[in-house]
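Human: If only I could read backbone structure tokens as easily as an amino acid sequence. Underneath my words sits a plain record pairing an amino acid chain with its backbone structure tokens. Take your time, and here it is.
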Amino acid sequence: MAKNNKTAIVTGGNRNIGKETALALATKSIDIIITYNERVEQAELAVKELQAKGVKAKAIQINLSEASNIGTFIESMKDTLKEWDKKGIDILINNAGTLRLGTFDKITEQDLDLIYNTNYKSIFFLVQHLLPLLIDGGRIVNLGSGTAKIAFAPLVAYGPIKAAVQSLTIYLASFLGSRKITVNAVAPGGLDDDFNAPLFKAIPQAKDFITSSTAIGRIGHPNDIGNTIAFLCSDEAAFISGAVIPIDGGYHL
């Protein structure tokens, strides 16, 4: 497979949707920088799996709940780009996120601050910091959620912030359109992965409910999302921008 010399950043790329997205991009000969906050062993394994596909890969640790960490990450990323003889970033996948369960009467200020800082604020300022390094004609994909439009009580601190991410996607698409950079979001439904494991542990019947409420008749998997994100980063998707694409198998049709 011929190299196209593109480079992608996938935040939270050591597991779940992030890892599957990175692997899908690697099949298109795209070099990958993944970020991770914890679980270093998973990050190292992801790098090895990406390299096995014949691409360059690097994992950089960053806690995205603190915007002040972004500058240090940018410097580490620049070092990697220099090492790889790259001029900038072609693709940015804003996947990193966190989850706190609780109904409206139980969520604390600390819970809400953590979700806001990690799931929204980090995207805003990471894109802002990367503006000089984003290649014209590039791609940005943000992780939204089906819970942005469908109320599910334990995710009251999560869904509305994902709605804000989806709104930010439209604003970024408008702002970056003159540079031919497309900006889209995907809105996954319920997924069978370890990010959602606390939800399924707290509500054992949730998985069966999601499955029975989905037209396709199954729960989603991280690769369902990763493959769609990879398409949005392709040349074939060059005229898709400002879109929020549900990937939920037809949930609650």
